[in-house]
Amino acid sequence: MKDYQIGYIKLALPKGRFLSPTASLLVEIDLGFEGYSNGAKQYRLRSARFPSLFAKILQEKDIPIQVAVGNYDLGICGLDWIEEFVVKYPAGALVKISGLNYGEGGIYAVASAQGKIASLEELSARRNDCRIVSEYPNLAEAFALNLRMRRFRLFPVWGAAEAYPPENADLAVLWGKSGAQLAAQGLIPLKRLLPVTAFLIANRESLENKNLSQILACFSSKLTADLPTSMENELNSFKKQKITRTLWLAKEINLALPDGHQQAPTAQFLKRAGLTLQGYSEEASSRRPSADLDWLGIKVIRPQDMPLQVANGNFDLAITGEDWLLEHLNRFPSSPVKKLFALGFGTVKVVAAVSQEMPVNNIDELRTLVQSSTDYIGAPLKVASEYINIADKYLRDNRVSPYKLIPTWGASEAFLPEDADMLIDNTQTGKTLKEHKLKIIDVLFQSSACIIVNKDSLASSDKKEKMKFLTQKLRAGLS
Amino acid sequence: MKNQKCKGMRDLLPEDMLRFRRIEDVFRACCRNWGYQEVRTPTLEYLHLFTATGTLTPGMLSKVYSFLDWDGWSGERVVLRPDGTIPVARLYIDSLSGQTLARLFYVTNIFAFEGTGKENRERWQCGAEFFGGAKPAADVEVILLAEEVIRKLCLSNVGLQLSHAGLVKALLKEFKLSPAEEAKMMSRILEGDWQALTKAKSPNPETDRLVAALLGLKGKSSSFLHNIKASFPKASRDFKSSLEDFISIATLLDNQGCRYKIDIAAMHGFEYYTGICFQFLAAGEKIGGGGRYDNLVPLMNGGNIPACGFALYVDPIMKLLPLEKEKKGKSGILVKGQELTPEIVKTCFAVAESLRDAGYPAEIEFAGRDESNYMWVILVSGKGSAPFVLKECKRKRARYTGASVAEILKVVNKG
What is the total count of domains within chain A? Predict the structure, then answer.
């Protein structure tokens, strides 16, 4: 047991979209935390008013899970992530206390205006395979099952779900500001699954056994009783929109380019390679940039999602990180994806790190510690990572046992030391790790951006020539 | 560190396995006598096998163990078999569809998530499926086969309840619900929520009267169904034809002296049933069930093959089954070496082999051990002219001393 956890009430606060409104709300109800603002440097916060109240800033997606497992007594996050959890684990230990009256938009099931599906009826009558892409795989699955879809395949993605239909998915389940806003993006909203509002949630056992009343009382003026909370109550079907629909035309070769941090260096690299793109710059960025090669289709998606999307043939080649390729190959050892060549930019180290207070300096010492003194860490070893398959293999290969993996969506350092004992994550300089009083005990490998290809595309007689042309052109961009 | 069993999983201990094997043995023997052939399907199947037929309710599908296989980058998911019938139907279509009639049986485990902690997530069942069997004789056959297994297991106070999926579906049509609402209502009924039907407002008072009669009354013979037929002359054509089918099966069962209760609500779990549905209850628990599912094979693109079948649930039956007196080793022989020398070890193995060849279970032991679980103990000293002593454990006396294994067998044979 860690001393600082005893007798404390722990609150999980969201990063990202709900950070500002949540911070304002907390100030308004006199429950403010110093340092809970955009660009917050520290994840751990203490309440000025209640000495026993301790808060942590987490990725919103992690909050329902962390509250359900009892690492936090209370949490604030969007209804979408709560339902994503609850729909899969209905008997879970999560209690929705109340909506908090802020939030925006909703979760929609959408098809592309250029695709073949325009209504729910068409979807449930469909006999052939339906590809669904979503950041909310559990909500998407429940949607498909309730619609009694005969055959569907689900592609969980890290983001950019809107970019997939119609070529790479028939359907996406995603967040949208409104049906109209989605329609403006060329999508047809088929159904609104739920509204996205912020919610106050609690761990059931904490609520039943622990005195949280002082904290709950602060929220009393803000609690609203009857917001529609489940998908059942919220079945606003959209009327078939009368859009002149032009069906999309398949391109011969499809390339996926990364968004986020990798976008700028990738754009420079492509420029060096002499590939002129429209819509892939910081000034004008589109999910579908165009090139001066009419046979080349280009999409901008998350680098994490690329290996799988190349493996399943949606793309012939992509620019992603070696880390994500390895993560994919650890999960699917016989995948047809391979690295063509490394690009040398976006270099990070994937490391294993623990708290500076842990008396170990390398993985061998950690293995011994886990085996000999389970009291110290309270076995099993909890490992937070956004690379769960890499972490799993690393721990197996190093015979660390027992261990438990906690999947994260980046920023694993926030979990240590209270909610995890070790992290396996990427770092550029190690500075952030040091700031959070962590030390690196092992470097698993170094990773940089690379070009990945589908082996079958390289060998295919239809694509061979153009693939060769393109990869030669890209190779020329290596500086 | 303590090794812990997975949540929701169950170990079967030696006593459990005695019960398990007894159920299995009786079931296998009965099935073979009725001309059924044993099959076994794999533990992993594609998820789409179960979604494509639209035959498991969304509630059941949300509890399957599904995941991506090591080569699952295409997004095609596999499941741990959540149901026994659908895989056997797939097997029939894949490999046996040349036979117009196929009587198949299986003993299998099925997997379904169960969150309350009251039931196992892995359950065993003994099932039989009759492909190509025409009604009503095939329906009666599977019911009588299931009954025979239950009778031979000497389970007492087992009740048989009959319902009819065609009848229920025809009844539901009368409510004139939208297809989506109708599917939802069917799911609720299959999950046991018949209140939903009584609460729904039908456009026709005649339907309400029919629902009230069917849910309120429980018949004990085909006469009840004749009474229903006579009291509701305005019922729909679908309803009447299902009722006729139900009557013909009930009449055949009456002729066989089969006792049952007609309870329209005795339909639970599977959406694939199209005709007669039945379930067996003992001590308030469901121990088996089955019915006719004529649409399943056509929905799986296997041609227009009618089928029916049943499954008995091993786990609740095990709880009801008295353990037979044949405790482990009771009739067995313990061959006990006095010392652990190479000669004595060799002799012990040789003696035990002769005993086993003669049909007696024989265990070998060198250390001290409680002998009370055995009928006989042979002490092997390997010394002098009398290397063996045969002891009868119950009376605690020596029955033979000497060097002849043949003599030992003679004594043991006499008892």
Answer: 4
Same domain, B80 and B159: yes
Interface test with B, best of A83, A85, A126, A151 (most B CBs within 10 A): A151
Q: Which of A90, A153, A328 sits opposite B115 (nearest CB)?
A: A90
With a CB cutoff of 8 Å and minimum separation 6, the contacts of B400 are B388, B389, B390, B407, B408, B411
- Structural domain span for residue A335: 253-347+449-475
Phi, psi of A28 (to 5 degrees): -60, -40
> Is A229 domain-assigned?
no
Please report, for the domain that includes residue B376, its CATH number: 3.40.50.800
Are B399 and B293 in the same domain?
A: no
**Is the distance from CB of A391 to CB of A405 less than 8 angstroms?**
yes
Interface contact flag, B62 A142, Cβ < 8 Å? yes
Q: Which residue among A148, A308, A312 sits closest to B58, beta carbon to beta carbon?
A: A148
Q: If pLDDT is split at 50, 70 and 90, which confidence band does B130 have? A: very high
Residue A70 lies in a domain: yes
Decide the pairing of beta strands A381-385 and A422-427.
parallel
* Beta strand residue intervals within A157-302, DSSP E: 171-176, 187-203, 253-258, 277-280, 285-291, 296-301
Q: Please indicate, yes or no, if residue B342 is contained in any of the structural domains.
A: yes
Tens of pLDDT, residues B132-166: 998 899 999 999 999 999 999 999 899 999 999 99
**Contact at 8 Å (CB) between B147 and B271?**
no
Q: What residues of B are in the A interface, CB distance below 8 Å?
A: 1, 48, 51-52, 54, 58, 61-62, 68, 70-77, 115-116, 183
State pLDDT tens for residues B63-102: 899 999 888 888 889 999 999 999 999 999 999 988 989 9
Cα–Cα distance, B304 to B296 (Å, whole number): 9
In B112-157, DSSP assigns E strands to 122-131
Angle at A422 between CA A420 and CA A425, to 5 degrees: 110
Amino acid at B109: N
What is residue A401's predicted lDDT score, i.e. its pLDDT? 84
- Residues 78-97 on A with a CB inside 8 Å of B are 90-91
Q: Assess if residue B1 is contained within a domain.
A: no
- Provide ipTM, 2 decimals: 0.78
B399 phi and psi angles, rounded to 5 deg: -110, -15
Tell whether A6 is within 8 A of chain B (Cβ).
Answer: no
Beta bridge partners of A425: A351
Confidence of residue B180 (pLDDT cuts 50, 70, 90): confident
- CA pair distance A282, A304, nearest whole angstrom: 21
B58 → closest Cβ in A145, A154, A334: A145
Look at B1 and A374 and tell me if their CB atoms are within 8 Å.
Answer: yes
User: Within this chain, do residues B381 and B265 fall inside the same structural domain, yes or no?
Assistant: no
CATH of the domain at A321: 3.40.190.10
Cβ burial, residue B380 (10 Å; 0-12/13-18/19+): buried
CB within 8 Å of B323: residues ≥ 6 apart: B15, B18, B19
Q: Could you give the C-alpha distances from A405 to A73, A165, A204, A421, in angstroms and in order?
A: 21, 33, 23, 10
Is B287 inside a domain boundary?
Answer: yes
- Cα A414 to Cα B26: distance, rounded to the nearest angstrom: 59
The Cα–Cα gap between B348 and B343 comes to 9
Q: Does residue A241 register a pLDDT over 50?
A: no
Query: What's the domain count of chain B?
Result: 2
Q: Which residues in chain B have their CB less than 8 angstroms from residue A91's CB?
A: 115-116
Q: Examine the domain organization and report whether B64 and B130 are in the same domain.
A: yes
Is residue B4, in this structure, part of any structural domain at all? no
Let me know whether A132 and A265 are in one domain: no
